[in-house]
Amino acid sequence: MGAKGEKTKQLICQCAFCLFAEKGFKDVTMKDICERTKLSRGGLYRHYESTSQIFLEIVKVLMASQQNEFEEKLKAKVPAREILYDVLERYENEMTDSEHSLSIAIYEFFSSPSMAKSNNSIRQQYETSKDMWTALIRYGIQTGEFSSVDPEAVYDLIVFSYQGVRMYSKLMEIDDCIPKGITSQIKTLLLKDPAGC
């Protein structure tokens, strides 16, 4: 595919992301995406066959982006504390940003019976994310920056707190102190010296 085709696919995914964040997964149609992108139906179908295919592409790109970020920083031996602070700061912002949250769409998409049995299950997304986080936590323990903790249990605390607040942010207004309190407790749990920067 040429550069023009790649640009068109990026446009489709950007516009579809906004629609999925606004309406959830079930209420977005290919017609909605055509209208938002100003592409003809043929132009859209040249790149994607369904809203499911587009949604999976968005999730894949988001997961790959986070995985690359973690891998590059660990490979460059960036201090674990610095990686943790960067990610948790972003998570704080995302937890209260209901306009750009895919939480409802993710729930709708992955809770369908066909997705539960597919290779693209939410379990696969969970495991991929767990691998990234546990690698960071083990790295922090090895460098002496993090306390000796159960990496998998801490990951569960992080992911379910983060996703829970994101889900609630679609349903009610979330005060900034909630994500700040969660990230503060994660830092206290992980860091040997939470006050230091």
From TrEMBL:
This is HTH tetR-type domain-containing protein. InterPro entries: Homeodomain-like_sf, HTH_TetR, Tet_transcr_reg_TetR-rel_C_sf, YfiR_C. Residues 6-66 form the HTH tetR-type domain. The keyword Transcription applies. Pfam families: TetR_C_17 (PF17922), TetR_N (PF00440). Residues 29-48 bind DNA. The keyword Transcription applies. Keywords: DNA-binding, Transcription, Transcription regulation.
